[in-house]
Design a protein that fits this description.
The structure is a single chain. The protein is of the alpha+beta class. Among the domains are: 64 residues, no CATH class; 86 residues; 238 residues, 2-Layer Sandwich (Nucleotidyltransferase, domain 5); 55 residues. 33% of the residues lie in helices and 12% in strands. The chain has 20 helices and twelve strands. A hairpin with a 2-residue loop joins strand 8 and strand 9. Helix 1 packs antiparallel against helix 2, helix 1 crosses helix 3 and helix 7 packs across helix 8. The protein is elongated, with a radius of gyration of 37 Å. It starts with 22 loop residues before the first helix and ends in a 48-residue tail after the last helix. It comes from Pseudomonas synxantha.
Length: 646
């Protein structure tokens, strides 16, 4: 409000903290500021001169500076009262003359005059500075010296004479052009980061932008962050009953998938994947482990002086009262396996968990899980003598393969170390938002706080959901005319039971099967209306050895690629194991370790099948030479009406 006229004055101008003005300029600044304020309040020039000592002519000049607007449309205001503050950009009037042999300087404002005379120069040069004219090459070393020549070529193409600046300069105009490059880069931070640092720098620009996220606050156990990270190193693959593998048979990479609480920073589940890539089934199992809390400490540790510290473990092992706690959301990245239908059905349909994929190329929104992977790599694996480091020039040992064998660094022991480290990690104090408390202490404080409602699902409801299973809708096949009993097919293997085999009315109809991802030998069958049907068992070739859904898919894929063949009477699991042993490669070693982790029995000396993989069929007896046994199968008899809908 104007003190004299009592009219409102919109003070749209910059204000200055007088305490921050340099001492040698502060007294003049205060007098000028008071004079401008009095003039805005309608004081006369004589009155202002009497109180501040500033002449009327200076007041007129001061108010013109005061009302001058910057590039954002805001008046400079009090900033214009600072002695020496420039409110108008320098404009060169003097004509550019050739430099003397030893002359320095004297070229102020030359670049601005050039860009005014040839405006297309700046437009074209910006494309070079941000590397927009190059389809490839972003992220390689940014060199301004290469841009100098581009600037000269643009000037020539726009018609700048060879006798004019900058083409007339014997030593060029590197310093002035360098300043122009800096000014261009400073105008667009994201584009500059992409041009100078590449895609990784562009990703980092999304962090620390000063904009508050839409959902910045979450409670303990509300949000989980799930991601996967590959761990590099050389580890010896041990197989019981077989020879010690040499350096060429080592594993050089495996994956670690973790689920971490966003608020407490606690790790809820971790799974190791011995494959070249993570699949949707791996993510599915990590979510189930995090929700069900089935982790238990290892009963026996083979590594010397390796032990769990008191109170260590996964949260639901330490606090069983919080098992089946409802989770509000899971933060994923945009990896392909996270979009799988099984993962979405598990989260949305079974568990009622919201799925948040976030924007593309923004790992900064999941800082907790990303920092965890860096900690595990730097403090655990990269300290081993067989490490390969983050890249060839960061922590790589000279001969990691030889070190893996010499120091006996096998994959089982590496997994033990990681398991113990993760369990101990939850019990160790951490800084930041935890304020020196361990993740488990943060969860305990949440558990003991009685003012908060704990949304815990009843165990009866969780068991009824059968969370750790996959559901498929399949069609029953068979034919009465051909004598083919009812059965279903899952991943090229036939399933049936004594009940289903006596129900020809289901031929051509759909049923629901529930699959245990870790054991594909049996599935639970249900009618479409939800009534239970029976437990279906896989055909004999797949029945002897426990195997997962992923193993079945890998074997079928290998058969399609003609990597090996399976003859009559052979067990696919054994043929696949023998194939992995015979064909040594980094990928096959990973697959072999994953197969052994599923079924430890395969690590014992396994008898080769009668017809090994890769052999011809000359030794296979002809079917005409074998005696056919036409025995009537001992099926159980049930009334079909008991299973049909009304």
């Amino acid at each position: 409000m104007n003190n004299t006229t009592k009219y409102s004055i919109n003070q749209i101008y910059a204000k200055v903290d007088s305490a921050q003005v340099p001492v040698n300029k502060r007294e003049m600044f205060l007098r000028r500021r008071d004079a401008a304020a009095m003039r805005l309040d309608g004081a006369s020039l004589k009155q202002i001169y009497a109180e501040t000592g500033i002449s009327p002519s200076e007041i007129h000049r001061l108010m013109d500076r005061f009302k001058t607007k910057d590039e954002n449309g805001v008046c400079f205001g009090e900033a214009a009262c600072i002695p020496g503050f420039r409110v108008k950009k320098y404009e060169r009037i003097k004509q550019v003359l050739p430099k003397k042999s030893e002359q320095k300087g004297g070229m102020a404002g030359v670049m601005d005059n050039l860009l005014k005379a040839f405006p297309n120069i700046l437009t074209s040069f910006i494309e070079y500075v941000f590397r927009r004219n190059a389809p490839v090459g972003r992220g390689m070393k940014y060199q301004k010296t290469l841009l100098f020549q581009d600037f000269y070529e643009i000037c020539r193409s726009e018609g700048v004479s060879d006798n004019a600046w900058p083409l007339s300069q014997p030593r060029g105009a590197k310093k002035t052009i360098s300043k122009l490059i800096n000014n261009i880069l400073e105008q667009n931070f994201q584009a500059a980061a992409l041009a100078v640092g590449g895609q990784l720098s562009l990703i980092h620009t999304a962090v620390g932008n000063g904009i508050e996220p839409l959902f910045s606050q979450c409670e303990v156990l509300d949000v989980l962050e799930i991601d996967s990270h590959y761990l590099d190193g050389k580890f010896v693959l041990h197989i019981k009953g077989d020879r010690r593998l040499t350096t060429k048979d080592v594993i050089d990479r495996f994956w670690l998938i973790c689920a971490r609480c966003r608020k407490s920073k606690a790790i809820f589940s971790a799974r190791y994947v011995f494959a070249s890539q993570v699949t949707a089934l791996d993510i599915f199992q990590v979510i189930c482990d995090a929700y069900l809390g089935n982790w238990k400490p290892r009963e026996k540790l083979s590594v010397t002086n390796l032990e769990y510290i008191p109170g260590a473990g996964m949260p639901y092992f330490v606090f069983p009262e919080l098992r089946y706690h409802s989770i509000a959301a899971i933060y994923f990245d945009n990896a392909m396996q996270h979009y799988a239908q099984d993962v979405q059905d598990l989260c949305l349909e079974k568990l009622g968990i919201a799925v948040d994929y976030g924007p593309l190329g923004s790992p900064g929104r999941r800082t907790n899980i990303e920092r965890l992977f860096k900690t595990l790599s730097s403090q655990v694996l990269h300290t081993l003598s067989s490490t390969t480091g983050s890249h060839p020039y960061d922590g790589r040992s000279d001969t990691p393969e030889e070190a893996a064998v010499y120091y006996d660094i096998n994959v089982d022991e590496a997994l033990e170390v990681l398991d113990v480290y993760i369990a101990n990690f939850n019990a160790l104090p951490s800084g930041g938002a935890n304020k020196g408390n361990s993740p488990l202490e943060v969860i305990k404080a949440y558990q003991d706080y009685n003012m908060l409602f704990k949304p815990i699902v009843s165990e009866l409801l969780v068991n009824s959901k059968d969370i750790n299973s996959l559901c498929r809708r399949v069609t029953v096949r068979g034919s009465i005319a051909k004598g083919v009993r009812p059965r279903i097919k899952l991943d090229r293997a036939l399933y049936t039971s004594s009940v289903l085999a006596e129900m020809p009315s289901l031929i051509g109809q759909d049923i629901i099967v529930r699959i245990d991802p870790d054991d594909y030998r049996t599935v639970s069958a249900f009618f479409i209306n939800g009534l239970p049907l029976d437990i279906l068992t896989v055909e004999a070739a797949w029945r002897d050895y426990r195997h997962s859904v992923q193993t079945r898919k890998l074997i079928n894929r290998a058969i399609d690629k003609k990597s090996f063949q399976i003859n009559i009477g052979q067990r696919p699991i054994i043929v696949y194991r023998n194939y992995l042993l015979q064909t040594k490669s980094a990928r096959n070693n990973l697959a072999l370790q994953r197969l052994l982790s599923e079924n430890p029995e395969l690590g014992d000396p396994v008898p080769h099948d009668k017809y090994p993989a890769g052999s011809d069929n000359s030794d296979i007896p002809d079917s005409s030479d074998r005696k056919e046994k036409n025995r009537e199968p001992q099926w159980r008899s049930f009334s079909i009406s008991q299973f049909e809908e009304d």
